Amino acid sequence: MTYCLAIRVNKGLVFASDSRTNAGVDYVTTYSKMHRFSWPGERTVVILTAGNLATSQAVINRIHKDLEDPEAPMNLAMAGHLYEAAHYVGKLSQHEQQQHAPAMESSKSTAEASFILGGQIAGKEPEIYLIYPQGNYISASPETPFLQIGENKYGKPILDRIIGPATTLEDAARCALVSLDSTMRSNISVGPPLELAIYEKGNHEDLRHITLTLNSPIYKSLQKRWNEGLKRSFNRLPRFDWEDE
Fold first, then answer.
1. Residue 85 and residue 98: Cα distance in Å, rounded?
2. Which residues have a Cβ under 8 Å from the Cβ of 237 and sit 6 or more positions away?
3. What's the CA angle centered on 21, arms 18 and 22, to 5 degrees?
4. Which of 71, 110, 147, 181 is buried deepest, with most CB atoms within 10 A?
5. Nearest 5 degrees, angle CA 62-CA 64-CA 65?
6. b or e along 148-168 (b: 16 or more beta carbons within 10 Å of the residue's beta carbon)?
7. Which residues pair with 172 in a beta bridge?
8. Alpha carbons 13 and 115: distance in angstroms, whole number
9. What is the pLDDT of residue 143?
């Protein structure tokens, strides 16, 4: 299991992901689920992955291969619109799943993987897309300006309450970290290191990216203040009538 999310606000995009791919009593593995592609002055693309690790790694490997192949019929650098890039990634995912479908079915496993693709092509608006295992995709809306893949239910409430088009990039990034922290507290299958990327609209030169562990000062401070704030708010909730007696 995993948890990744992308947020679209007026000023740009925020991407966040955990790194845990397997969790058990004595076996935990971590892999980066955030993949960044940049063509200075022309386009920036970020891809987040969840689901079957073999499928997602194969798709990312194929993306890199197509970028290096001058005869490739399609790659991320060729897409005229981000939805074309989403369609391309969906086709790669479907191809990988179908290749291994008989073996996966016989072992009662699944090769399904989900992706979030976001970024901006020069001259067009920043966008984010959720690509389903079936290869189809949806984009974020003004009413719900964020997308999630993986273990999404624990981290959704804070996004629903805070995120809107006018939210600043920095507040959206803090909200993404709180969303990840809330998920990790409730589900052991989501874990550090955490990755955070902030893309400012129109800036193809500088995609801010940081990796955080549980001991990173900014993460420890954020976690501490959020927990303390929740407790203070809880203690200020209205009392029942009989409690005054």
1. 20
2. none
3. 130
4. 147
5. 60
6. bbbbbebbbebbeebbeeebe
7. none
8. 16
9. 87
Secondary structure (3-state) at 114: strand
Q: Strands of 10-157 (E only): list them.
A: 12-17, 20-22, 29-30, 34-39, 43-51, 113-121, 127-131, 137-139, 146-150
pTM above 0.85, yes or no: yes
Q: Where are the alpha helices (DSSP H) in 148-216?
A: 156-162, 169-186
Largest pairwise CA distance in the chain: 80
- Which amino acid is residue 134, in one-letter code? Q
| pLDDT score of 30 | 74
Which residue type, as a one-letter code, is found at position 205?
Answer: E
Report the b/e string of 76-115 with b at 16+ CB within 10 A: beebeebeebbbbbbebbbebbeeeeeebeeeeeebbbbb
Rounded percentage of the chain residues whose pLDDT exceeds 90: 74
According to the model, what pLDDT value does residue 243 have? Answer: 86
Give the span between the Cα atoms of 186 and 178, in whole angstroms. 13
For 20, the token pair is 């845990």
The owner of tokens 């009662």 is: 108
Q: pLDDT digit string (tens) for 103-129?
A: 777 777 788 999 999 999 999 999 999
Length of the chain: 245
Amino acid, single-letter form, for residue 70: P
